[in-house]
Specification:
With 77 residues, this protein is α+β, with helices and mostly antiparallel strands. It has 3 helices and 3 strands. Strand 2 and strand 3 form a beta hairpin.
Length: 77
């Protein structure tokens, strides 16, 4: 598993975290990393997701040169 830690500092970040949980929970797609669970630990929200061996899309496009159209095609999926 992978754990994404988000600091909850104010009401706006709390609302953003709740939105992210809903989006991850409600969108089942082979191109989206599966959400497993979440925990509130002190002032942090921990999102538990399936581990993605290749890294994030940002990691991929930072390491490999891709044309704008290629990035768009990957993001669209």
């Amino acid at each position: 598993v992978a754990i994404k830690k988000m600091k909850i500092q104010n009401e706006l970040s709390e609302e953003g975290a709740a939105t992210e949980i809903r989006v991850l929970r409600d969108n089942q797609n082979p191109n989206i990393v599966p959400y497993l669970d979440s925990y509130l630990v002190d002032a942090e929200l921990w999102l538990v997701m399936q581990f993605m061996d290749g890294g994030s899309l940002f990691d991929v496009i930072s390491a490999v040169y891709m044309e704008e159209g290629q990035i768009a095609a990957v993001c669209q999926q």
